[in-house]
Amino acid sequence: MEEEYNKQLQKEIQQGIVIEVPSVKVLNRTFLVLRSDGRLRKILDCRMVNSVTMNLKFQMEGVEHLRQLIQPEDFATTLDLRDAYHHVNVHSSLRPYFGFAFRDRMYTYAGLPFGWNRSAYTFTKTLSVCIRQIRKRWKVKITSYIDDILLLHPVKQELQTVTKQIAQFLKDLGWRLAPEKCRMIPHQRFKYLGWQWNTATMDVQMPAPRRKIMKTLVNN
User: Fold this and answer.
1) What is the dihedral of CA 132, 143, 146, 86, to 10 degrees?
2) For residue 20, which phi and psi values (nearest 5 degrees)?
3) Which CATH number fits the domain that encloses residue 19?
4) Which residues contact 217 (CB under 8 A, 6 or more apart)?
5) What is the pTM of this model?
6) Domain of 158?
7) Domains in the chain, number
8) Which of 35, 42, 46, 199 is least surrounded by Cβ atoms within 10 Å, i.e. has the fewest?
9) Which residue in 192, 176, 201, 193 sits closest to 74, CA to CA?
10) Listed residue (149, 160, 168) closest to 184, CA to CA
11) What secondary structure, in 3-state letters, does the chain show?
């Protein structure tokens, strides 16, 4: 586990997400957690910082927003941003509060850490500027939820072309995409926000693996 942690730390240092510093104001716990896809993610336990940081309430574009946006026979593509929060720089005045130690050295986050209670708010507000520009430049319906972006259009070929253009637009702005999670080929059946959508029948279903988990929880 320690070697995996060090591997992820070195990658973050190379990408400028984490920097080594001589001192910090808050020394937070840090460890690896298991992701839903089976991989490990390095996170920062920001409970001390969160306890003195006011929560900001904001509305995100979730399932209900998509239900209002989607139309029968729409085609869909999805884009996934890699290491979403880390794209956003932390102001120099805040960095001393996101400190942590590893192997007798101190570090802090230069990019938004997973674990801070304002990371989702800050990231969403930052990405929303790009989303507004996309709506202005392309005739496509778009919605996003943290690092997941969904594009909708009634014409399959048009959406495929536009999706490539928007992906390049995001890359040009410095956003990193996760190609293995992006779905660049338009489909009328797609998974988004944990649900299986079908615009041909306008059905929304819970995916089979999730249904199995829910049944297990209910039976227990």
Assistant:
1) -40
2) -85, 140
3) 3.30.70.270
4) none
5) 0.86
6) 2-216
7) 1
8) 35
9) 201
10) 160
11) CHHHHHHHHHHHHHHCCEEECCCCCCECEEEEEECCCCCEEEEEECHHHHCCCCCCCCCCCCHHHHHHHCCCCCEEEEEEECCHHHHCECCCCCHHHHEEEECCEEEEECECCCCCCCHHHHHHHHHHHHHHHHHHHCCCEEEEECCEEEEEECCHHHHHHHHHHHHHHHHHCCCCECCCCCEEEEECEEEECCEEEECCCCEEECCHHHHHHHHHHHHC
Tokens of 15: 């990408």
